[in-house]
Amino acid sequence: MDNKINFTITAETITQVNEGLATISSALKPYLLALSPEERQELPKMSDKTLPFVNKALDYLSRVPEFAPPYMDVEGLQNDMAVYNQLMPLLRQVRILSDNLDDTVMQAGGESYMAALMYYNSVKMAAKMNVPGAKSIADDLSKRFERSTTESEETVA
Fold first, then answer.
1. 41 phi and psi, to 5 degrees?
2. Which of 35, 59, 100, 110 has CB atoms 3.0–4.6 Å from 39's, for a disulfide?
3. How far apart are the C-alpha atoms of 19 and 66, rounded to whole Å?
4. Number of helices (H) and strands (E), helices first, in the chain?
């Protein structure tokens, strides 16, 4: 495995990022919602195909308002789209950051795990050769690979 994570991040950088994220979260908190899984499932979704339709409808609505049903909240629609247009670029930027963080954490974790496995295999070999102290380390590290009775029963079932 390539050693792509060949750096460390300073505590100052992590503090700066945490402060920046706290600032962003605090600034957006009054405007953000938390939907339940049911609400998320029930909502119609805005997509790349839907966006032009909504924009056309808004355009027609401003030019030919007499076709709007009397129960329609025209201002609400305009406000909803304004918020959508404000937040969507932020969401795209955050998704890119999230994907990059996820990839970097996955790479760092993979590299760490591979190195730990190399050490474990070396310790196991040392234990087989009766090197003092190796057996207790190998036994302790081997707990990662033990299967519980529940896991074995679930696999069989």
1. -70, -40
2. 35
3. 50
4. 6, 0
Asked whether the beta carbons of 124 and 138 are under 8 A apart, the reply is: yes
Q: Is the dihedral of CA 104, 107, 113, 115 positive or negative?
A: negative
Contact call for residues 65 and 74 (beta carbons, < 8 A)? yes
Residue type, 124: K
CA distances from 142 to 41, 139, 150 (A): 43, 5, 18
Q: What are phi and psi of 43, to 5 degrees?
A: -70, 135
At 2 the pLDDT is 86
CA distances from 114 to 71, 107, 123 (A): 62, 10, 14
CA distances from 25 to 32, 79, 80, 144 (A): 9, 22, 20, 37
Low-confidence ranges of the chain (pLDDT < 50): none
For the chain, give the number of residues. 157
- pLDDT at position 123, please? 98
Q: How is residue 57 written in tokens?
A: 């409808």
